[in-house]
Model the fold of this input.
Amino acid sequence: MTDLPSVRAMLEREGLWADKRLGQHFLLDLNVTRRIARFAGHASGDPAGGLDGVTVLEIGPGPGGLTRALLEAGARVIAIEKDARFLPILAEIGAWSGGRLEVINADALTVDEAALCGGGPASIVANLPYNVGTPLLVKWLKAGAWRGPMTLMFQKEVAQRVAAAPDTSAYGRLAVLAQAVTHARVVMTVPAAAFTPPPKVDSAVVQLTARPDPFADLDALETVTAAAFGQRRKMLRSALASLGDAEALLAAAAIAPTARAETVPVSGFLDLAQAWRARR
Ligand code: SAM
Done:
């Protein structure tokens, strides 16, 4: 698998440039993309970081730097790319891989991933476009049994919010939602200069692996965390007033009415979501 021009050479040959409206910042350095692929392999259960026999859903392959690394590691890749300009390059990479790459020209926000990956399981790997990273993560957190582990690059600040612990300023709705169904940790930081063109901020990769006891009612969890963190400086008995009898809800979840959202662990929010649902 060595007879392919470099990603940079392919971009130049095709006269392609990064379209900022689609959050395009490319990884052209194979050392970086291979590291991300190895983390995806670890998350998928291979201590050596390989992806043999693993189906990977890649969002936003663009010119295919990360795609190559995933294919090199042995994965079968289903890639969803909104920008049709990259299809010729991706077709070339698909041929090089011996047919292990399928490319879907679509918007990842609206695709039916379960149908695309035949019910799964599929690992999700992506250098996500910044503008849709959070809604995509929430969509996948709510997904069914097809969704395997996720290895996702976000802006560093978003990555920290996904993996945040209570009593930190990064802890909020995203941490609670993510950690209700997965174990989330930041595994790698990538400086802005590693991208072409460089974004304004650094990025980081988060690894999300399934919890053995995923919380089922993420809609209820979204409701209570929106209220709680919407007014994060307030005591919960005031912040949750919009949900009805806040004191009774907090008592049912064994949370002090004077507590603030930032101090409540994920398990406390799960109890709160259950208590709220039970009163509906
Ligand atoms: N994976 C490539 C890499 O690492 O060099 C490109 C990553 S770039 C940050 C994000 C990619 O997502 C771009 O190729 C962009 O066109 C694509 N993209 C943006 N919005 C999208 C959407 N809603 N659905 C699918 N792809 C999208």
